[in-house]
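Subgroup meeting minutes
Present: P.N., E.W., G.H.
Scribe: E.W.

1. P.N. recapped why we're keeping a running log of single-chain structure predictions: easier to compare across weeks, and new members can see raw inputs and outputs side by side.
2. G.H. added today's entry (263 aa).
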Amino acid sequence: MSTSSTGPAGSAKSAGGGVQSLERAFDLLERMADAGGEVGLSELSASSGLPLPTIHRLMRTLVASGYVRQQPNRRYALGPRLIRLGESASRLVGAWARPCLARLVEETGETANMALLDGDEVVYVAQVPSKHSMRMFTEVGRRVLPHSTGVGKALLAHLPDDEVRTLLSRTGMPAATERTITTPEGFLAALEEVRRRGYAVDDNEQELGVRCLAVSVPGSPTAAALSVSGPAGRLTEVATQRMVPVLRQVAADLSRTLTGTGT
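Output recorded in log:
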């Protein structure tokens, strides 16, 4: 736990110069999100190391401002006021990603997308289309299930198998095409292949005739992935070997943008 000092106004400051109570409140919100959005005070105390009275005081403030709500079972859940913040942040993330996506289009020639994992679904937050007359188009804001998409595989490959199984049990695995993976065992095997290769492939699984290559954005504050997609006849194995290093480099550059570590 960071050390703190008390300024003239009596407010605790963190070692980094920030306001400690704000840092703790945001940390609790992130811990709630990691726990699925609903937790008890004792769980927060155990995971954060903060004493119960401190957590109770912070949660009362968050409840009063609408960022947290107390459930009838006395547990605490993320509040509706966070929705507006999340929607605005998603739009900004898409705007920040566009230069990187434009680079992907320039270097690969194919449509570039950015997607986030939102709950059990994948949501597309930004796209730059290919200049080819025959190109792929995914509407920004579109939501899809992760099991039939390259970005979904790239995102879920970082989760433990038991968490993936639980997610799939909630969403089901409907077939988008005859090539869609529709069993948990088949999907987990595909994720192992993603981990081995370092990139994911959607080979006619979301739409026949369409192939997609995807990588996760390393160190992103929220689970994010980039992809290029196009006709299967253009995204051949030879093209894949040329495009994947570009995808990885652009994802690394975007990570620096999102985390504020870029130059």
